[in-house]
Structure formats: structure tokens, C-alpha cells
Amino acid sequence: MATTFSPISVFAARLMPKEQRFVSGHRACQGCAEALAVRMVHSILGRNTIVASATGCMEIISSSYPDTAWTVPWIHVAFENAAAVASGVEAGLSILMKKGKIPQRKIQVVGMGGDGGTADIGLQSLSGAMERGHDMIYICYDNEAYMNTGIQRSSSTPYGASTTTSPAGSLSIGQHTWKKNIPMIMAGHKIPYVATASPSYPFDLAQKVKKAAKVKGPAYLHIYACCPTGWRMKPDMAVQIGRLAVETGVFPLYEIEQGVLRITHKTPELRPLKEYTKHQGRFRHLDDATLEEIERRVLDEYRKLERREGLAL
Amino acid sequence: MERRIGMEASIAMAEAVGLCDADVVSAYPITPQTHIVEHLSELVANGELDANFVPVESEHSAMSVCCGSSAAGARTYTATSSQGLALMHEILFIAPALRLPIVMAVANRSLSGPISIWNDHSDIMAERDIGWIQVFVENAQEAIDLTIWSFRIAEDKRVSLPTIVNFDGFILSHMIEPVLMPDREQVQDFLPPFEPLQRLDIDNPVSMGPVGIPDVYTEAKYVQHKLLTDAYGPIVETFGELEKHFGRKYRPVETYRADDADVLLLTMGALGETAMTAVDERRKRGQKVGLIKLRLFRPFPYKDLLNAIGDKPVLGVMDRAVSFGGPVGPVASEVKAALFSARKHPLVPEFIVGLGGRDTSIADFHSIFDDLFEAAERDTTPDPRFVGLRE
Ligand SMILES: Cc1ncc(C[n+]2csc(CCOP(=O)(O)OP(=O)(O)O)c2C)c(N)n1
Ligand code: SF4
Ligand SMILES: [Mg+2]
Known about the structure:
The structure holds two protein chains of two kinds. Chain A is an alpha/beta fold. Chain A contains twelve helices and ten strands. In chain A, strands 2-1-3-4-8-7-9-10 form an eight-stranded mixed beta sheet, sandwiched between helices. A two-stranded antiparallel ribbon of chain A has the order 5-6. The N terminus of chain A is likely disordered. Chain B is an alpha/beta fold. Chain B is built from 14 helices and 16 strands. In chain B, helix 13 links the parallel strand 14 and strand 15. In chain B, helix 1 crosses helix 2, helix 1 runs parallel beside helix 7 and helix 8 packs antiparallel against helix 10. The longest helix of chain B is centred in the middle third of the chain and has 17 residues. Chain B is globular. Chain B starts with a strand and ends in a 5-residue tail after the last strand. Chains A and B meet through strand 1, strand 2, helix 4 and helix 6 of A and strand 3, helix 3 and strand 9 of B. Strand 2 of chain A pairs parallel with strand 9 of chain B, so a sheet runs across the interface. The structure holds thiamine diphosphate, iron/sulfur cluster and magnesium ion (MG). Iron/sulfur cluster binds next to helix 2, helix 3 and helix 9 of chain A.
């Protein structure tokens, strides 16, 4: 099945900003789609942005003193608290503006973290920040493991993937739990905007980032971030793998606006899962029976998502 | 004009924060800190304090929010105690490294286990090395004065470091005492508006909290140590300013009837008040005991302490926490470290008192004084004693 863009996205190509806020020279691995996604997000968000980053790959590779890849104000405090720090920045800016101590203008506060910093150790602080209704965007860059510390499993690691703490072995298929669904947990917070996105679909991603920025109150973006190093695959395949993740139904693209779900990239017929897994060393040990079992569940989850389209969640 | 008024110490402290016009208050409730944050929420809810109150889901997030808001350039306050302070632990180290002048009250309380809501200094002694300025107060008036002062010293550009006001849970936090509450104008005269060293500003973008490779980490830590040590000068200077504005005198180390004393006892925090009463009683009996009160815990005032001790033969140290399996009393171990470089030093008997809300009575003080005189007579240091321990 050929990939299709929604008509509005095609025209958006020329509207994609050229100026970068997350600039080259950083230390990410070759072919890192997490760095690619960060670059895209911030070229869209532009200048009037303040970023609070969690510890993790993106923090480490972008801020080795005295260098920085950030041309917008950026702060890193710790691993599990990026959402809290961002909410503090927002609380600080808004009261200073109210009291006339700094000029009144729109400044987009962004919290960012990896899947570990978001789905595991940082989930509580994220939940708090979203529930309190701060006017901020939180972005999870999901590379499906703790990459910065050496490819350990997270609750966002997919079923069957071999990582250094969920290694495949004679008694283990690797990760034996299903990926935690953080976007739906965020939707449960009744925040105005939740979306999944992927740098393999830049225009879809651009629209979602813009919507998230426009929304008054908290917005949550869950961005698929292929990590060739941790997934044990060729670095020049990151963008293609991102496409296959969507086309096989592994990572569906959707948004939940004011509680209503819409799949933004429809894939009525999913591609065989193997097309996705065969390129990645982390799945190499899986036998056909296991792959089929995973494929059935992926399909099942995808159909469930389709059934929820247009419904108020 | 100041108002003379009877007020609970916690409420007085919150009122002081209001007078300082804090921009952001972020906190999570824990006994015995609750009255401070409840009162601050009220001040905000009634429009008496124009601040953002951020009711976080944990103390870890409270300190994280404080880091964010302070980095954004907002005057930032929080308060906690015990388990809450322990939960902040990780972030406490980061605030001074980022030079964020957050002010925090710690209503000192014991640590679990067993769980105990009552007063001692276990919580703050576990946070000795976090790199914050730390003072201890003895009564509600000091709580007001030193809260106002904390914003001034923390935000002083030569310093720009976070500051903790330690005040004993319940035995001070919940006491209603007569105080002189300054007015807004007086506070404004003393406390200039907050101008951060650097802040998250879209017109002057900076990266805060970068990775410190081995090439720079040592230097970063050295600078941090030097900054906190050198804060001593501005601390004494601003104590002087505080006296000029409010007429009350504060010193890094304070003494009571110490000059002509034969034996000395060192305390920290609210027990100092009872200690003074005990000293007076003893003096009436013709026995010369004196008191040293450690007001400034960080930076540790080595010189002032040595001056206060002089050539006295015995200095008892009261500790309200235990360094398990180690030097027993954390304050005593600091004091001994301070004395080690002196040519001559006194015997330093150690007393562990008032753990987990155990009352420290005048009689306890007398038993301690007895020990001090005995130590002087025998010229030997007794083993550390858990005062009032039931066998
Ligand atoms: C409290 C704490 N625990 C553990 C760590 C070690 N640590 C740093 S980054 C990281 C994993 C990051 O994983 P993720 O959030 O998924 O980001 P990624 O590096 O994969 O982009 C871990 C475990 C830490 N810095 N702090
Ligand atoms: S380990 Fe993965 S996520 Fe981290 S920089 Fe390398 S490719 Fe990117
Ligand atoms: Mg990750």
C-alpha cells in the first residue's frame, strides 16, 4: 500500500521553516531519528520557546559544556522531572508577565524526555503537570528503551524486543510485557490535545506540533524515535522504519483533540509485521509463531483504535 | 510600622513570605510544615499575595518546579519537612549548582522508620552537603526576620545560592508567640527586587544544566564550594543590614553568658530557649555555665566558633540526630573538625537529645551540665550519651 499524505500536508512543504533551533554539531549517533524529531519540532516551534529537558540521549548529546546545540533557552535539571521543571518555568513566566516584570508575549514552554523519562520514572511528575493544567507542551521521544544508559528495557519497549535488561535467552523471548500506552494515559487526564507523531511523516508532525502550540493548556505529543544503535539496524534506515511502523500498525498516527480521537494517517490494510521487524536486530530471535502472535495483537489494537475514532473518549 | 501581634510561628513565616512578594510558591503538604503552605495558599486565594501557587503531586516535583520558576526569574519559595525533604534530596544538589536562589523553610522533623511526625534534626542533617546556605532559628520572631533575610542573601548577586531556614517542627512551628510583624514598606526597603544572575530569556538564550565532562566537573565543584564559603562575608554584611532596618541583631554564632563560663554547651535551634533558662538556673547556684548557639550551619562559621569557644576546657555539643555507626552526633563531628586545627582545644562530650519529639526538659539540661563539670574535673571525655534513654 502506498503512503498517502493528506492534501493540506502536501502544500505545507513550502511552509516548513528553514531556520533551526536545535543545530548541527551535536553528538547523536548516525541516523538517530530522535535527534531528527527534535530538530523538526523546534524548527516548527521557532524562537519564542523555552525547553526543559530530561536526562537522556537528547540531553547528553546536545549539551556537553561548553558546547550546546540549543539556540533557544534550555534547562536540564534531572531525569524524572522535566515536566515539573517545565511547569515551574511556565508558572514563573506567567506570574512575571502578570505582574509586569517581563514583557507580555507568547512564550511556548516545552518539556521533553525519552520514553524512560516519560513512561517510567517521570510518569508521576508528568501526570501532575498535565493535571494542573499548565500552558505547556510535553513531548516524549520514544525510542523504546533507555538508550543513554545502554539499551535497557522500559515500559515502552515493545513485546519481544531484546534489550540489555530484557535479553532474549533460552528461557526468555526478550521483553515479555506489552508496550505501555502513554498517549491514552495522557488522554485520561482530559487535556485539550494529545497526539502521536513520527519524523517519518514530517508534515503530519508539523501540523500536530502547531496544534499543540496553539492549544491553551497542556498538550502531549508522543513522537516515535527510531534509534538505529539500540534497535540494532542500519543507520540509513531510520526514516523508512518509521514509515513501516505506521504501515504495519505498530505505531499508529492519531490525535485526540478535546477528547475526540482521529487517526491522522489511515492504514486500512496493515502491512505484514515482518516487514518491520526483519530489519531490526532486537527482534531477530523471534520465531514465526511469536511474530504471528504479535501481529494478531497489533491488528487487534489497531482495530480497537479505529472503532474509537470520532468518539469522545 | 511594625505590628505587635501574637501569632503561630508557621503563620508568621508565611506572612513574611507574603511581605517579600514571592512570585511562585510550590509545595506539598507534610506535618509539621502544613500551616505555612496552607496560609500561603490562603494569601494567594484572597489576593493578598500576587503569586502562582503550584500545588504539586510530590516534594520532588515541588523542588523541580522551584528550579524551573527560579530559572525563569521568579522569586521562589517552598517549605517542607522530614520525608518530604528526603524526597527532594536529588534535586536539592542541583539548585545551587544552577545558582538558583530558592528560599525554603524546613520544619525539622525526624525521619522514618519508625515513622514519626515529631521534632528532631534527622531530616536536615541528612542534607548537610547539598550546597545551600542554612540557618537555624529559635523563635517566631527569628523565623520572620530570617525568612525575609533569606531572600536578600539568596538573591545577592555575589551569592545567588538557595537558602534554607530551619525551624523546629511543633516545638516552634506550632507555637503562638508575640512577634513584631514588619510592614510591606519596611520589607521593600530592605529587600531589593529580584534580579537574577541569568534566566531563561528568549532574547538572551542560555543553556542551563549542561553535561559536566571530567575536564570541567572539578572546577565546577570548586567554584561551588568557594561561592558558599565566600558567602560568609555577604551573610554578615546583610545581618548588619537587617539590624539597621529592623533593629534585631543576628550573628553566625551567638553566645549566652559564655564569656566568663567554666564550661560551655552548644545548641542549634529552638532548644536554645530552654537552654538559656537552664543556664540562668545554674548561674543562680553559682556555677558558671555558658551557651553557644550555632545560627549559621552552612557556610560553617569556623572562626566565629573558635572565637566563641576561646580557651574553655569543655564544650558539650547537643545533637538532635544520629550518624549511625559513625561519629554519633553530626554537629559534634563538625565542631570537632573545626577544633582539630586549633592549637588547643576543649574536651567535647556529645549528647544526643530530643529524638523524634522526646521532650528535652530543664532537668535534662542539668544532667548535661553535671556531665560537663565532671568531664572538666576528670579531664576526660565521656562517651556520647543518649540523654533520657530508657534501659
Ligand atoms: C534518578 C536517576 N536514575 C537513573 C538515571 C540514569 N539514567 C540516565 S538517562 C537514563 C535512561 C534514559 O532513557 P530514556 O528516558 O528513554 O531516554 P533515551 O536516552 O532513550 O533517549 C537513565 C536510566 C538517572 N540519571 N537518574
Ligand atoms: S543511542 Fe539511539 S537515541 Fe541515542 S543518540 Fe544514538 S541513535 Fe540516538
Ligand atoms: Mg528511550
